[in-house]
Specification:
This protein is mainly beta. The protein contains 2 helices and 10 strands. It has helices at 26-33, 134-143, and strands at 8-22, 41-44, 48-62, 65-67, 76-94, 99-104, 111-116, 120-122, 146-160, 163-169. The strands form 2 sheets. Strands 1, 3, 4, 5, 8, 9 and 10 form a 7-stranded antiparallel beta sheet that branches. The longest helix has 10 residues, at 134-143. The protein is elongated. It starts with 7 loop residues before the first strand and ends with a strand. The mean pLDDT is 82.
């Protein structure tokens, strides 16, 4: 009797840190050509910033099998898989509403700047770390600020030995 793999299982923990900066065209132009070109105008020169950090705990299951289309041809190998994920959000900073305006008066007589906006943040507070032992801190960190679930589905097909195609949905 030939031994076959029944099911492949995997477990994982991944830490994700995503960040993004969005610059408008006025800031590089201001740095390269000065503010005279923006005379009697108000421009926004502050880049938008976002940072997100979360932990991803996952369980993966996959199963390989083959299909014989005819007796002469080699079999086509197919390997479907599913990954279930538990996501714990630990920190988030968003500065999309922030604005640093620069106004250059006619003939450059004066320059006026204005800073306004909101910074949205979430993260573990300092209370999570004060007067606590390591286990309490770990529990606070695992609890996080936001939690969610995700499921990934995918399959790999190998119709011939040198060709493999994969499709997945996250």
């Amino acid at each position: 009797v030939k031994r076959k793999k029944m099911l492949e299982l995997g477990f994982g923990i991944r830490e994700h840190v995503h960040t993004a900066f969005h610059f408008n065209r006025e800031l590089p132009e201001l740095l390269l050509k000065g503010n005279k070109q923006f005379e009697n105008q108000t421009i926004d020169i502050l880049p938008k910033f976002q940072l997100m950090q979360y932990t991803d705990y996952s369980v993966v299951a996959a199963k390989s099998f083959s299909i014989h289309l005819n007796k002469k041809a080699k079999p086509i190998w197919i390997k479907p898989a599913v990954r279930l994920r538990y996501l714990v959000g630990n920190a988030n900073i968003t500065m999309e509403d922030m604005q640093l305006s620069l106004y250059t008066a006619p003939e450059g007589r004066y320059i006026e700047t204005t800073l306004k906006g909101n910074v949205l943040t979430s993260g573990l507070s300092t209370d999570a770390y004060q007067n606590k032992n390591g286990a309490d801190i770990t529990r606070s960190f695992l609890k996080g600020n936001g939690r969610g679930f995700a499921m990934d589905l995918g399959a790999t097909v190998q119709p011939i030995e040198l060709l493999e195609a994969t499709i997945s949905v996250f």
